[in-house]
């Protein structure tokens, strides 16, 4: 197998891993303190000891709540194939009581090969669920209810939650209710009668730590030595990976991205974009791929706006920044024009425009929201006299001027002097 073919196969393997949540979160399954281990212990003990349980999985969107739950259920279904039945509800689809109980009855009928009646009433479906809980309990079979968007079920009369938790009070029933929500106060939404029947177990999904990220990156990117890939290529790839993971610049790049979005899902999207830049010629990962991905992901709309500004508008922005550097917290268009004239007189620039032309550039900057009025109460005043301020930082303005192709040298000189 040639170098390019090996690189393409390695890239295909890494991409498939990044798109497989069960593989990704398997990296955290070894630790006894992980949410995977805790959740698996709670559910497996409910199955083996024939007891009822309820638990909430809480955390921001993209933190891996559903992915870890699915991984746990997948493993448990392999261990206890004939002792587990899974019923899934979503608050976005089944918030209505009638709809929820009908969906529970439908899934129970499919699971146990029974005939489902679409014409059954709310009470019929409710009694059917209670009867199935009793029958499954007598057969030592646990029904696991997964309630995604749990906080939506906790609104209104909460009849679904009450009926489920109340039915679990019977000694003959054997069930586990798992609520999944991005609201950390989801349990506080429960009514008193529902809260008294809830076990108040909660698992909090936090952003991954530095150690978790390093373990995840090594888990995803390491190539198997005993596979169809050439042995020498896999060894070289893994050695290069270890050097990159130990590089402080690489860690800084990952931390920069995590500071903007700490969710696991967003990290996976970032990694997928980064590996897509891998050169099939070298077939190895490089720090530059991750830097390029970071620069493409982190949009800077104000810098993009500066690229579309005219040269006169750049002069206006620089004049306003110079006024702020001079600790003039309150200034208007007329003050900006005085600063503009002083720059022209000091450096004898050729870029000098009449006041009415500058006013149009000033109004265009207001429209682009690069500057704004400081006091909306003076809306009856003329634009020239209303106090304004910049909505762009010194660093953003400086970077914008550097990236502007035809930026006058005098503006860069002025900004460098202020820096």
CATH topology category name of the largest domain: Rossmann fold
Helicity range = 55-70%
What separation lies between the terminal Cα atoms?
Answer: 55 Å
Shape: flat
Low-confidence segments, ≥5 residues, pLDDT <50? none
What's the CATH H-level homologous superfamily of the largest domain?
P-loop containing nucleotide triphosphate hydrolases
Q: Which strand order does the major sheet show?
A: 2-3-4-1-5
**H/E series:** HHHEHEHHHEHHEHEHHHHHHHHHEEHH
Helical/strand content category: alpha/beta
The share of residues in extended strands comes to 5-15%
How many β-strands, per DSSP? 7
CATH class of the largest domain: Alpha Beta
Report the sheet with the most strands, covering strand number, pairing sense and barrel closure. 5 strands, parallel
Return the CATH architecture of the largest domain: 3-Layer(aba) Sandwich
Description:
With 419 residues, this protein is α/β, with parallel strands linked by helices. 56% of the residues lie in helices and 9% in strands.
Task: Please tag this protein with its features.
single chain, 419 residues, alpha/beta, Rossmann fold, Arc Repressor Mutant, subunit A, 3 domains, five-stranded parallel sheet, two-stranded antiparallel ribbon, 21 helices, flat
């Amino acid at each position: 197998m040639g170098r390019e073919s090996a690189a393409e196969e390695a890239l295909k393997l890494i991409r498939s891993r990044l798109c497989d949540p069960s593989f990704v979160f398997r990296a955290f399954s070894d630790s006894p303190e992980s949410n995977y281990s805790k959740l698996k212990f709670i559910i497996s003990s409910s199955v083996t000891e024939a007891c009822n349980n309820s638990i909430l999985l809480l955390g921001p969107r993209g933190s891996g709540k559903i992915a870890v739950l699915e991984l746990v259920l997948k493993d448990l279904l392999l261990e206890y194939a004939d002792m587990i039945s899974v019923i899934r509800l979503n608050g976005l689809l089944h918030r209505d009581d009638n709809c929820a109980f009908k969906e529970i009855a439908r899934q129970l009928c499919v699971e146990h090969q029974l005939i489902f009646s679409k014409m059954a009433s709310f009470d019929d479906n409710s009694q059917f669920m209670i009867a199935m809980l009793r029958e499954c309990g007598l057969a030592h079979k646990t029904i696991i209810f997964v309630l995604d968007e749990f906080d939506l079920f906790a609104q209104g009369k909460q009849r679904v939650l009450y009926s489920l938790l109340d039915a679990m009070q019977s000694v003959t029933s054997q069930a586990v209710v798992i609520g999944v929500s991005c609201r950390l106060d989801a349990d506080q939404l429960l009514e008193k009668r529902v809260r008294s029947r809830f076990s108040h177990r909660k698992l909090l999904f936090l952003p991954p730590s530095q150690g978790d990220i390093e373990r995840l990156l090594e888990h995803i990117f390491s190539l198997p030595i005993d596979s169809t890939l050439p042995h020498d290529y896999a060894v070289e790839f893994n050695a290069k990976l270890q050097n990159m993971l130990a590089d402080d610049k690489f860690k800084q790049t990952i931390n920069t991205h995590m500071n903007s979005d700490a969710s696991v899902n967003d990290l996976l999207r970032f990694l997928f974009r980064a590996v897509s830049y891998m050169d099939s010629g070298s077939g190895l990962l490089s720090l530059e791929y991750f830097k390029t991905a970071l620069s493409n992901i982190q949009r800077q709309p104000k810098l993009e706006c500066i690229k579309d500004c005219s040269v006169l508008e750049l002069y206006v922005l620089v004049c306003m920044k110079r006024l702020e550097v001079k600790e003039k917290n309150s200034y208007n268009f007329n003050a900006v024009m005085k600063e503009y004239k002083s720059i022209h007189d000091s450096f004898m620039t050729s870029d000098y425009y009449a006041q009415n032309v500058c006013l149009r550039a000033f109004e265009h900057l207001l429209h682009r929201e690069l500057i704004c009025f400081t006091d909306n109460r003076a809306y009856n005043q003329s634009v020239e006299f209303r106090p304004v301020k910049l909505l762009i930082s010194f660093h953003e303005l400086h970077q914008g001027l550097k990236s502007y192709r035809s930026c006058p040298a005098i503006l860069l000189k002025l900004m460098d002097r202020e820096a």
